[in-house]
Each structure stands twice: as structure tokens, then as C-alpha cells.
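tool_log.txt
---
The assistant was asked to compare two proteins side by side. It first ran the structure predictor on the initial sequence, then on the second. Raw inputs and outputs are pasted verbatim so the downstream comparison step can read them without reformatting.
(1)
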Amino acid sequence: MRLASFNVNSVRKRAPHILRFLAREQPDLLFLQELKCKTEEFPELELSASGYRMKAVGQHGGRNGVAVLAKPGLDFEVVAESLPGDEGDTHARYIEVAAAGVHAAGIYLPNGNSGGDDGYAYKLAWMERLRLLAKDRLDRFTPFAVLGDFNVCPTALDLAPGALPPTDALVRPPTRAAWRALENLGLTDALRALHPGERVYTYWDYGSAFERNAGLRIDHALLSAELAERLVAARVDVAPRAEETPSDHTPLVIDIEG
């Protein structure tokens, strides 16, 4: 089973990039983040040329947004379109599906650098809500994967030297502690499990950052023990970042045996 995640930074602008990625990699499930459109504006007709079926959760105001695309022939059920725990939260940041005996969630975790102290508090509260949901899935012995843009550099290895100040919300100690709390549930960082000491990035700011490889690893896949035991490959596909008019992120791809 191949799972993939791609922050597209405007799905309507990146539809050609998505179609090329689908044709090349043929993931069973692809999770998209940062759609930047309302649900009804999602380019389903254009993307349906791939044969993939899809579900989008957009947001009014042209911000955030997540979606899932499923390979032809793969039955899937959408089990959640928002993260439980704060019914007043109107941000479109979470989608979860059940497919082939696996629950897989796609997330767009808050950045935390805007909105001052309140914005950072929202990030940490969102991470705690995610931890509680993941704990529930694990307590039920549900094979579970969480993929997406976490907006977290877990360690110093996950960002180019000097790429961010220590005050940035992606690297602040409480952010990294919240990440470790997720791992301490028994979730495995798929890429780090297979590439423990490698500098691998999934995001490069616009300008010359990609050419200088001054990047960040902020797109992740966390796997429950049942899936981690069957993990056979995890890699970053840099091809979309090198294309014309790219997203500032590039896809993460993982393969699970069986």
C-alpha cells in the first residue's frame, strides 16, 4: 500500500503537478494540504482525469483546506472531516478515511507563527487534540497513519543550518515536546525509521532556497506499530519542486507491505 502527502499551496494552481505525480507514483491514497479554496471550488473535474476518486474539505476565505484522492478500485470511507475536541474550530485541517483495513488521516497542522501568543497556543492545542485522537485509535488497536504538513521540525537534523531562528514556532521547545508526545504514544516517524541520519527536506522557501538546499523537513508520516512493522520504503519525491511554478513543498511517499 502506497501512501503519499503533498502540500500543494493552492490546488487550483497545482492541478497539473498533482496529475503528473499521480501518473508517476500511483499512490493508493494521496493526501493534499493547503488547498486555498472552498470545497465547491476544488478542481475535481480536472483531477478526475487521473481516474482517482476524491473528497475535499475546503474553507471559506481561501485558506487551509485538505483533501484525499484514492486510486481507482480502492474503496474508501470518509470517517472524519474535522479534528474532534473544539467544535468552534472552523479551520479545514483534517480528513480521515478508512481503506483496506487502515485508518489514514491527512492533516494541515497550524503553523503557529501568526496571531501572536494566541496563534501559537492554537498550534499547541491542535497538537494535543491530535494526540488524543491518535491515542483513541491506538487504544482500539486500529492500524493508523497520520500524514501531512505538521509544521514541525522535530530535531536540528530536520532543517538546514540557520534556516530558522530558535524562536520560530516550528522549532520552539514546546512544539518539539508536543511532537515527542505523539511519538511516545507508539507512533513511528516513517522517514526517520528508514533514514535515521540523513538530511532530507520536504519544503524550500521560494527564491534560491531549493537550489541551495536550504530546506525544512516539516511534512511527515506517523505510523502505528502494525503499519510500522510493514514499512518498506519512505522517501521524498523532489521532482515536483523542480517543475515550473511549483509548490514550496514536495511530496512524501511511503510504502507499506501488504
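(2)
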Amino acid sequence: MKLAFSTLGVPGLPLTDVLRLATAHGYHGVELRAHPEEPVHPGIGPVERADAAAEFKAAGVEVLGLAGYARVAAPGEDGPVLDDVRALVDLARDLGAPFVRVFPGGGDEQGPEEADATAARRLGVAAEYAADRGVRVLLETHDSHRTGAAASRVVGPVGHRNVGILWDVMHTWLGGEQPAASYAALSPYLGYVQVKDIAGPDDTTPLPLGDGVLPLGECVEVLSREGWDGWLCWEYEARWYEGAAPLPGLLEAGRDHLARLLNESA
């Protein structure tokens, strides 16, 4: 498996510095938070896109994916949601990124079946657009669809290879789903895996990998046992927690922890 980290852990950091961290600490890729607060987002122009792609290539680091904020199960008209997804897909194509992350975002005013149908409809439309651009749209296990079972209810009916699922191990755990059950539900659709650690269900402040309660060892073990060889991406949510320790000082130990889990599960 290859290792990456998300720029959610280093909010606003210039791309040159992000790539320096990746190369210095042995990460193969970076997941870019695609938000206007960051240097790379759908609002940047062709020159900035080309420059960013060139920086990644020069550093020998891969753009794992773009973490966008489109909410495909949200109530309302399809048009604005699909516009957001298409903008992310276009940026991913320009950067050479294989994946785009979207959220479910189903609202309380919908029942589960309506939210599922809304998300599946929009992802079905997005799939054709993404396929033409060599990009795969991934629904993250998050908010209204935080378990593997819930996310697969949406993606399964879409039935398109350019739509899949991003496994956020915190959310499936918070949803009461064991890693083996999550993998069983997600495996036909799995794009990559976001790892992290927290103190507990009532305190999701990010911690160094291995210092919290999330079953990272079990997750890596089931992935290894099943022969999965994709990406593990450390999503350290520093942007949302001012008291979190700075990520740069944790990256080397985090890589070592993941490498140890991979060795133990081999």
C-alpha cells in the first residue's frame, strides 16, 4: 500500500512546502483539500493548474485526489451540486489526480430512501462526465451515510466504474461498524482509505496515529488479508481543531506507525 497525507492537516500551507514535507517524510502522495482557503481549488486558472501539476511531477509525489465539498444527497436542485462535482473533476483531470471526494450530506428533511435515490441519481450523471476525463468520483463514508453499508446502498445501484467509495475509518467506527464488515460492504467500490486517530466518540480532536481508539490495526489487517494494495491517506483534521498538535512534527512517526502495521499484517 502507498501512503499519503491530506492538506487538511496543514491548512493554507503553500504547495512547495507541502511537497517538501511529503518527500522529507517518505509519503508517496498528497490529498489536496480543494477549498478556496487552499492554494489549489477549482477557482484557480490554467496557468496555476499547470504549475501545480509540474511541482508535483518535479517532486516525484503523486496527487492522490481532491477532497471536495459537494454534497450529493443534499436536498435541493441537482444543477448546483453537479456543477460543483464537474468543477472538481475538471481540476482533477488538469492535475493528473485519479480521484475526487464528495460527501453524502443528506438532510433531515429527507427520508433515507429519498436521500439514497438523490445521491445515486447525481452520481450516475457525474459518472459519465468523470469517465470522459479519466477521474473516479468517490463518496466518502461520512455524515448521513457514515457506514460502509449506507454508502454502498448509494453506489451499488449506480453501477459505474467511475463512481466508488472513500473509506473514512473514523466514521464507520463511529457508526458502529467493525472493520471487517466495513470492508465487506465497501470492497466492490473502494477507491482509497482515510486513516486517522481520536481520543473517543465524544472527543474527535485529531491525535498522532496509534495514540487513540480507532482500530487502525484491524483495518490494515483486513485490507492486507484481502490483498488490497491501494492508498492509505492520513487525514489529520487540524483545520477544525485549533488545539491539535502541528502535523509536520508528527508525519515521520505517523509513517512509521503505518509501516509497522503493514509489516505486522503481511
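---
observation on (2): The first strand starts at residue 2 and ends at 6. Residues 181 and 236 are 24 Å apart (CA to CA).
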